[in-house]
Amino acid sequence: MHENSNVEKRLRIPKILRTLYSPSKVFMELAENPSYRGVVLILILFIASNILASYVFYTKHFIQKVKPDLFEEGSDIWTENATLWESNGNCTQNSDKVYGEYSIAFSITNANELYMQIFFPESINCSKEEFNQTSFSLKLINADAAPSNISLTLFSESSGYFVRNLEKETRNITDWNDWNNLTVPLGGEGWRTNGTASWDDINGTKILVEFPKNVNATLLLDAFFFRGQYEPLINYFTVFAFQYSMIYFMSFVMLWIIFGGLLYILSKYAGSERTWKHGLVISGYSLTPLFIQGLCWTILFMFLPQVKIAVGTVANTLAAGTLILDVATYLQFMFMAWGIIISTFAIRTLNNFTTGKSAAISLASYLTAFFIVRLLGF
After folding, report:
1. Are 342 and 285 in contact (CB under 8 A)?
2. Residue among 294, 314, 279 nearest 182 (CA)
3. How far apart are CA 90 and CA 167, in angstroms?
4. 3-state DSSP call for residue 13?
5. Which residues make Cβ contacts (< 8 Å) with residue 40, sequence separation at least 6?
6. Could you tell me the end-to-end alpha-carbon distance of the chain, in angstroms, rounded to an integer?
7. Fewer C-beta neighbours within 10 Å, C or N terminus of the chain?
8. How far from 265 is each of 180, 268, 341, CA to CA, in Å?
9. Nearest alpha carbon to residue 108 among 247, 3, 209
10. Pairing mode, if any, of strands 149-156 and 202-232?
11. Distance between CA atoms of 169 and 222, rounded to whole angstroms?
């Protein structure tokens, strides 16, 4: 034991690292002079390690370039605002959606066709090198019959347009009462050209839905995008870095304060004479494993396979269910247990409580604080 102390002094191992393997010694040193400096350092390391893990995660993911641009123009703006559309039906917002906040509902009464069209604020380059697909999701409710045909028109320049029947894209749809995603390749076979039209200059679109007879129906439209090539998600990391930093900061601070407050209250009830500051120092140092968790996640994410993300479809996930992400999820429980063990030693050392009493206080405080922070959305 004496040799270990000499080694630690020679190497000047910081308290926050010694907390991981020798918490009793550290808290004996902190008992007489509790300080928040170590907690601040743990907070900084926690944020840094989690930002690093997020960065590595982003390097493994590729996101499809879409129009409207999700990072510049907002999410799904074309099917969020009903006033942007012209239609022969009644046009309103609807909370039944697959992406964003709303879909657009188009309702007709005693009619055999329904059209909806929109003109864009700027032309879109739909050449092969740029946006070479378009996609949208449809759902039919309160309808007397299923559609007999759907066609898509893309307006170009001043009076020209391209038009295509979507028989191929809709032939396998068996349930129009559920959301169905249609992805249509642009250019090539299947498109008819009218007037002067160029794929480099698309400025509007029209969807025509035909029925075999006059019907009363409501059609929901959502997630209308033009799609291009996949690009590294890391290109957008700076957009989220500050936001992530604030989330990590708030989650740590809230967990630290709630955990420390509960440790103080329960210890006081059990006969402790320590102060609030001791409770906060114990909780802060007990969160040391969380920045180690971030480093472990960083290493794990290096082994993630490359994942392509198609934004705005009916099924949209970030590689959910892969073994590595499952391991990362379950690892956090190991680091929680590590933190509970550290705080148990701290409570026992500072208060001369039994190990059982210290463990009960530590476990109750940590888990309660953890679930409160989760309920608050962090």
Report:
1. yes
2. 314
3. 26
4. coil
5. none
6. 41
7. N
8. 55, 5, 19
9. 209
10. antiparallel
11. 16
Cα gap 361→366, rounded to integer Å? 9
Going residue by residue through the chain, which has 378 residues, state the pLDDT in tens, using 9 for 90 and above: 444 544 444 445 667 777 777 777 878 877 777 888 889 999 999 999 999 999 999 999 888 888 988 766 666 889 999 999 999 999 999 999 988 889 999 999 999 999 999 999 899 999 988 999 999 999 999 888 999 999 999 999 888 999 999 999 998 898 999 999 999 999 888 999 998 899 999 999 999 999 999 999 999 999 999 999 888 889 888 878 888 999 999 999 999 999 999 999 999 999 888 888 999 999 999 999 999 999 999 999 999 888 887 776 544 444 444 788 888 889 999 999 999 999 999 999 899 899 999 999 999 999 999 999 999 887
For the entire predicted model, the pTM comes to: 0.70
**In whole angstroms, what is the distance from residue 198 CA to residue 180 CA?**
29
Q: Which structure tokens are listed for 269?
A: 């009830």
Instruction: Tell me the angle at which helices 355-375 and 323-351 cross, rounded to the nearest 10 degrees.
Output: 130
Q: Pick the closest to residue 216 from 139, 148, 141, 104 (CA basis).
A: 141
**Cα dihedral sign, 187-192-194-195:** positive
In this structure, what token pair is assigned to residue 159?
A: 């009076």
CA distance 169 to 173: 8
Report the half-sphere exposure of 309 (CA within 13 A, side-chain side).
19
- The pair of three-digit structure tokens given for residue 303, joined into one six-digit string: 């082994």
Please state whether the peptide bond connecting residue 212 to the residue before it is cis, i.e. omega within 30 degrees of 0.
Answer: no
